């Protein structure tokens, strides 16, 4: 309990630094860009159009049980994109902050947290694209839509836990930065982004259900697109994976952080 209070006090002391770092990330991402923050909306829209053209018109993968494929596709794309950006940027956050870490004392977990928070800000801006597509396709608004906060926030916690784990491991094993890109590409195809798992073989469905991203994306679709309440199993899996990932990430990060300065 004392350690938790110490962490909370430490976090509160450096909250303004975290805010400034997140703001800096946001400004740097769109620096010298003509459209600036508009790309947060245009990018997912353009990617959705490309994937829609490929999977619907070329490969004819509409899926019998998918009532609004553009929204279905965009939800999967946005949530997986958030996870990919959050973990990918958090992975190199400690190495990127090496000059600062060597000069002054700053809680090292601030840097992975900064990257995951920045990814969340970008994701929230991208939700404008989701709203536009829902309006354009005539998607019915449901009273369950505000419940999207649960899968999104548990995905945030899950991504933070994985980001902390990756950040600590990357300090000692730089090859992880290359392997993670291959892993997330494979993970994307097992996250039911552009297909309906219920149309696949039973053993494939069971395999997909071992992927936490499948649960976060499905829970989001249930409350936003289908107007259904999340079932207990979905709530427990989303929350359980988030807590487990965060505890593991914090444990590994805390044990290794004192050695970082010797390897960065």
List the defining traits of the structure above.
globular, 12 helices, 264 residues, single chain, mainly alpha
Give structural notes:
- This protein has 264 residues and is mainly alpha-helical.
- The protein contains twelve helices and no strands.
- It has helices at 2-13, 15-29, 39-58, 69-91, 93-96, 98-103, 110-136, 149-172, 176-189, 202-208, 212-226, 232-256.
Report the C-alpha radius of gyration, rounded: 19 Å
The main pleated sheet reads as: none
Helical content band: over 70%
Q: Mean of the pLDDT scores?
A: 86
How much of the sequence is in beta strands?
under 5%
Number of strands: 0
Helix/strand order, N-terminal first: HHHHHHHHHHHH
Distance between the termini: 31 Å
Structural class: mainly alpha
Q: Which residues form runs of ≥5 with pLDDT under 50?
A: none
Shape: globular
Q: How many DSSP helices?
A: 12
Oligomer: single chain
List the helices and strands and how they pair.
Layout: H1 2-13, H2 15-29, H3 39-58, H4 69-91, H5 93-96, H6 98-103, H7 110-136, H8 149-172, H9 176-189, H10 202-208, H11 212-226, H12 232-256
Give a quick rundown of the structure.
The protein has 264 residues and is mainly alpha-helical.
């Amino acid at each position: 309990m004392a350690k938790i209070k110490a962490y909370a006090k430490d976090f509160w002391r450096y909250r303004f630094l975290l805010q400034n770092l997140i703001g800096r990330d946001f400004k740097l991402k769109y620096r010298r860009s003509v459209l600036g923050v508009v790309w947060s909306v245009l990018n997912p829209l353009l990617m959705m159009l490309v994937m829609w053209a490929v999977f619907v018109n070329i490969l004819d993968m509409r899926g019998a049980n998918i009532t609004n494929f553009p929204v279905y596709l965009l939800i999967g794309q946005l949530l997986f994109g958030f996870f990919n950006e959050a973990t990918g940027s958090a992975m190199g956050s400690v190495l990127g902050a090496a000059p600062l870490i060597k000069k002054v004392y700053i809680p090292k977990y601030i840097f992975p947290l900064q990257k995951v928070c920045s990814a969340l800000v970008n994701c929230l801006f991208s939700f404008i694209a989701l709203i536009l597509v829902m309006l354009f396709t005539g998607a019915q608004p449901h009273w369950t839509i505000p419940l999207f906060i649960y899968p999104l926030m548990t995905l945030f916690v899950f991504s933070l836990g994985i980001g902390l784990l990756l950040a600590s491991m990357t300090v000692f094993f730089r090859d992880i930065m290359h392997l993670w890109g291959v892993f997330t590409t494979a993970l994307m195809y097992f996250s039911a982004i552009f297909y309906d798992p219920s149309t696949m073989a039973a053993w494939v469905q069971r395999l997909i259900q071992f992927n936490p991203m499948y649960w976060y994306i499905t829970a989001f679709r249930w409350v936003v697109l289908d107007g259904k309440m999340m079932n207990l199993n979905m709530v427990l899996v989303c929350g359980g994976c988030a807590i487990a990932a965060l505890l593991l990430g914090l444990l590994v990060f805390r044990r290794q952080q004192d050695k970082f300065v010797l390897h960065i």
